[in-house]
Amino acid sequence: MNTPKKPPLLGISIREFARRDGCSEKLVRRHVERGGLARFTDGTIDPAGIGTGWRESSRGSANAADRVRTSSKKMSALAKVSAPELSATAEALASVTDGGAYELAILLSEAKMPAADAQALVNAWHLRGRAVAIETLEEIEAPPEELDDWRDHPRFKVNWMEGMRIAWDDVEMAAAV
Fold first, then answer.
1. pTM
2. 145 vs 71: which has the higher pLDDT
């Protein structure tokens, strides 16, 4: 007897959102309850909100420069390099391309595409998304003084799985849920 397959999730869990954004689950839950972060009908949260300053109302005295410094510190520690700070726009564009790659990877894994094929497709998609993000940045703001080009920033050089601190096994586990 065939059991109906669960529909794919629209977003990510509170736990996953908190992990990716570097904050506590409690803070994310509080913002969801207060309407600061929208929930999809399946109870998940849109990963596009990661790195967008949604915590601003809970930080009171924090300003945009503090948020950018925090994001840059997290990414430079991850990349093991000293990196120039990113604007909120640059961090958001990088985060969205990483999150989109993750969501695509889950969908392909759920569709039972062989892992090697899925990884190749997701990596190709991510590289194109990254290129569009960089082109967008080039149109609206100059790169940090230390760089000649946005492409030179370590945040735009790191692979999406490294940027999100995950392995393909994590994708497969998320798809199995």
1. 0.52
2. 145
